[in-house]
Amino acid sequence: MNVMFRSKWWSFGFRSAIMLYFIVLIVLPIIGIYTQSVSRGFVPFWESISDPLAWKAVLLTIKLALIATVINVLLGSMIGWVLIRYRFPGRRILNSLVDLPFALPTAVTGLMILLLLGPGSFVGELASKMGFTIVFHQPAIVIAMVFVTFPFVIRAVQPLLEEIDKSEEEAAYTMGASKFRTFFSVIYPSMLPGAISGAMLAFSRALAEFGAVVLVAGNIPGKTLIAAVYIFGEIESDNPQGAAAVSVLLLTLSFIILWTVNLIQSRRPGK
Length: 271
Fold this sequence. Notes:
- The chain is mainly α.
- 79% of the residues lie in helices and 0% in strands.
- The protein is globular, with a radius of gyration of 23 Å.
């Protein structure tokens, strides 16, 4: 009886601690952002989100995040395929390096891009001779977004590739299907849910990127000023409501994306 009583109290206390942790670190900050965005009323909120600079920053962020996501889907699917299906020297090291963007501070990522592609670097000087620059322009922002979101598609695709029954591929080959047709008829449909969910997570992460981007973006409105840097500028300008209003747009979009990801994952075969 005492053991059962203690077990119930331990279970209750554990669940309460988890819920408290979740509420304090996630729910309350989210409520705070939404509250701050309308703290002066809905008219100032609407003026903040309808500001041309704010909309240009948000639309530019969405555009560049989409480009980075497409690149990551293509590269991530291929890299995931190679790491699962092929055995070669250094494979384990490469597989472990996939998670490096998760461990590396994003400011360090921005500094790396600045040093490798900046005006004083070999690549930067070569690009300058060809008549264009990379750093402080949109290509550098896309590169930064690609790097910080690199692991999402790979890690989402790899478990699905491991679960594919190779007998289905062999049956397709026996029936005369080429490797190209077998990949798109048998393998790719199995990879697709992981690629979609990984792409959505990468897109959501790219929307919020700041540390890697702030060092390589030129912060020119409509050209290189993205939403995260715009929010930072509004905070520095003592306009927390304007920053919160744009944050609400990004936060709401991220909620929609995460809900869609969960919906896709719940509809996978075997779920």
